[in-house]
Design brief:
The protein is an all-alpha fold. It has 16 helices and no strands.
Length: 370
C-alpha cells in the first residue's frame, strides 16, 4: 500500500519545478532575438533551425543538402513545436523544460515504484529531485540544448521496456523501439548504445522473455524512429543518411588522428565521477556524484554475484550506463566531453539513481528491515 505522502510528492515534483522556473524567469525579459543575435553556440543554432522549421517547412529548407548541425536533430522539431504553440518566445520553453525534469522523475517513479517500499520510493523521489534541481535545472533548463528532451525520452523508453517484458504488449513494444530511435535522433552519440540494447532485446527473445511478434515490433519501430533524419535527407538530397554529417566528420577526424592517452582516460574518468575541475576549472567537485558512483559499483558487484543483473530491466539499465560511460571515457575527445559543462554525463547519472534505490530496497527486504 502506497503512502499518501509518496503519491503527493510524486505528483508535486513537476509543480515544484514549475514554481521554481517562474521565480527564476520573472519578469520574463528573455527574448529569442537575444539568442539569435548572440554567440555562435548550440542554443543559437537550435533556435535558428526551429524558426526555419516553423516558418518554412519540416524539411529545413535553409539546409540545402545533407543535414549537418546541430546534432540534436529531433530537438529542433521540439523547439519548433514550442514556438508554434507559444510564439517565438524562449520563456515558455524554459518553463516547459523545467517541468520536464519533474515529468522525467515521475516517469522513473512509475517505472519502478511497484518494486519499492513506500519509504524507499520517497527517498528515490527526494534524491532525483535534488539531482534535477542541482545538476539540470540550475545549468541546462534555461538553454536550448537537446539533453532537456532526451532526459525525458530515456525514462519513457525504460517504462515501456518494463511493460513490454511484463505483458509482451504489442503497443508497448512499438513504443519501446520508437522511443529508443527518438533518443538517437535527439542525441546521435546514443547510436552505439541503442544498437547494443537491440542486441539485448534479441537475446531476451532467445531466452523466451519476448515472443516473436514483440521482438519484430521493437526492431521495426526502432528502425522507423532512426529513419526520420534519413527520410529528410533522402527527400532533400537523394541520399538516405541516418546521421548528421557533422557526426561523420568528427568520427573520421578521431579515427585518423586519435587524441586519446592514458592521461586523458584518467582525467575523463575522474570527470565522469564528479571531479569536474580536472577538465573544467569553472565547476567544482560534485560530491553527490562520487557517492552515487561508489554505491553503484557496490550494487553492480552485488547483482553480478546474485545473478539478478540478468533480469531484463536491470540488464538494459546497466548496459546503458556502462556502455555510455565507456564511450565517454575511451572514445569521445577530451575537449568535447566538457562542452557546455557536464551535460554529457547527465543521462548516466539519471539512470544510476533508480538502479541504486531498487537494489537498496531489495537488500532491506531480504534483511526484513522494511
Amino acid at each position: 500500500m502506497k503512502s499518501r505522502l509518496e503519491i503527493y510528492f510524486a505528483f508535486c515534483i513537476p509543480l515544484l519545478f514549475l514554481v521554481f522556473a517562474f521565480f527564476k524567469l520573472y519578469p520574463f525579459e528573455a527574448t529569442l532575438q537575444e539568442i539569435i543575435n548572440g554567440t555562435n553556440d548550440d542554443w543559437q543554432l537550435y533556435a535558428k533551425t526551429a524558426i526555419d522549421i516553423k516558418e518554412n517547412g519540416l524539411a529545413i529548407p535553409s539546409v540545402k543538402g545533407l543535414y549537418d548541425y546541430p546534432n540534436g536533430f529531433l530537438y529542433s522539431y521540439f523547439l519548433a513545436f514550442c514556438f508554434f504553440l507559444f510564439g517565438n518566445n524562449p520563456n515558455p520553453v524554459y518553463i516547459l523544460q523545467s517541468v520536464m525534469i519533474g515529468i522525467s522523475i515521475f516517469i522513473w517513479y512509475k517505472t519502478i515504484n511497484d518494486k519499492m517500499n513506500s519509504r524507499i520510493a520517497i527517498a528515490f523521489l527526494a534524491l532525483s529531485f535534488l539531482f534535477g534541481l542541482l545538476d539540470i535545472f540550475k545549468y541546462y533548463s534555461f538553454r536550448f540544448l537537446s539533453e532537456n528532451l532526451v532526459l525525458v525520452l530515456i525514462p519513457l523508453f525504460f517504462y515501456n521496456c518494463k511493460k513490454t517484458f511484463a505483458h509482451n504488449s504489442k503497443l508497448n513494444a512499438i513504443a519501446t523501439g520508437l522511443l529508443l530511435g527518438l533518443c538517437v535522433m535527439t542525441r546521435p552519440n546514443l547510436w552505439p548504445i541503442a544498437l547494443l540494447l537491440m542486441v539485448i532485446f534479441i537475446y531476451f527473445y532467445f531466452k523466451r522473455h519476448l515472443n516473436f511478434s514483440t521482438i519484430i515490433l521493437i526492431l521495426l519501430s526502432f528502425t522507423f524512429g532512426v529513419s526520420i533524419l534519413g527520410l529528410r535527407n533522402y527527400l532533400v538530397s537523394g541520399s538516405f543518411v541516418f546521421f548528421p554529417i557533422n557526426s561523420f566528420t568528427f568520427f573520421e577526424i578521431y579515427i585518423s588522428n586519435p587524441d586519446i592517452t592514458w592521461q586523458h582516460i584518467f582525467q575523463k574518468s575522474l570527470f565522469c565521477l564528479g571531479y569536474l575541475s580536472v577538465l573544467n576549472e569553472n565547476f567544482s567537485v560534485r560530491p553527490h556524484w562520487i557517492i552515487i558512483w561508489v554505491i553503484y559499483m557496490i550494487v553492480l558487484l552485488r547483482q553480478i554475484n546474485n545473478k539478478t543483473i540478468y533480469e531484463p530491466l536491470h540488464l538494459l539499465m546497466h548496459a546503458f550506463v556502462l556502455s555510455y560511460t565507456s564511450i565517454l571515457v575511451f572514445v569521445i575527445d577530451v575537449k568535447l566531453i566538457t562542452v557546455y559543462g557536464f551535460r554529457y554525463i547527465l543521462p548516466a547519472i539519471s539512470i544510476l539513481i533508480p538502479i541504486i534505490l531498487l537494489e537498496i530496497n531489495r537488500y532491506l527486504q531480504g534483511k526484513k528491515l522494511i
